[in-house]
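Appendix B. Extra example for self-study. Work through it before the problem class; the solution is given directly after the inputs so you can check yourself.
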Amino acid sequence: MPADDLSPSILIEQYVQQLRSQWIDQSFGDIRFWGFAVVRPNDQSFVVVSVQADGDRLDLRLVHASRQGRETVLSIWSPRGLRLDSGRLVIAQAARLSLGDCAAWAEDDTHYRIRTPRGEGSFSMESTPALRLGC
Amino acid sequence: MLALHAVSRALLPLLVLLGGCVSLDSGSDDERLPTQLAGKAEVLASTDADYARAVITSAVKAAGEGGVVEGTVIRLKQDVTVWRMWSGPTKKNASGLTNRIGGWWAYDAPQGTQVQYRTAYEICNGWNDLTWVAKCTLKAGAVVVIGPGQSVSAQTCGDVTGVENYPANQKDWQTYVDKPWTRPTELVCPADTEDYAADPADISKAKAAS
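Solution. Structure tokens for the complete assembly:
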């Protein structure tokens, strides 16, 4: 059975195991919610220190790659299509994403909406995956 | 030689059309470096053992995504002063850290207005307040990437009005120091008490005390 045909809870648990075995301590400096760069690419760098599931939500706990500061949580609701390759994490689809004071969610099949401290509005998805972590 | 170099550049589109890939990497280091770094750095070939340390793949990005358009990996032959604008000591991110130290620097001292600087270095409002200036030293032996800044789209900035976007800039080159917190002997900074809060109308100067 293809991974994405599994029930949501089994799929999320599969993602948790995959991320725990392959992505803990992997550093990345580029965080994209669809086309939106949540941080300046590669100005800072982060690592995932733990992965948890809560229902249909996947929580990645991040710390700065210097190991200073507090943990923050990158949450992904209803993730589908996880790919890990060459130091990149890609999730093709998600209902919603959040990190700190930034959030993004799928508005319809072709648009996503973001909310940041600077405002809220929508953009075209343009075939970009919902989440990209990389360098 | 300079004239020949200029001719090569002028003929580049034709040469590419006729012969495929053309390299302009045959000039001396000083011809390939911006004048500010001439004599102070050497250009590294991808075969150099130090080349990978620069992590050029983290610096070079596609149009609209920031970073640099194209990168040159250099190793400094002498100490070079670099500047970075940041959001100040009281502005902490979700991790509780300031953004004083980061990957992106400039070997040119900040000048002009805050808005001009933001445009020149393609820095979205949401990424950095550009209110303070840190002056640090890239030490001889440091290996970094330099290059012209890549464009940044409104979508990348997350500007819902679509207004905030920045064109690529061939004039004000960026300096990329990969994970500088792991390289304390290559990038040396004084205490942040040496930094200054910049006057937005002239960021080369400290803001007048209020």
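Self-check: Chain A touches chain B at residues 27, 29, 35-45, 62-66, 68-72, 99-102, 114, 116-123, 135 (CB under 8 Å). If your reasoning did not lead you there, revisit section 3.
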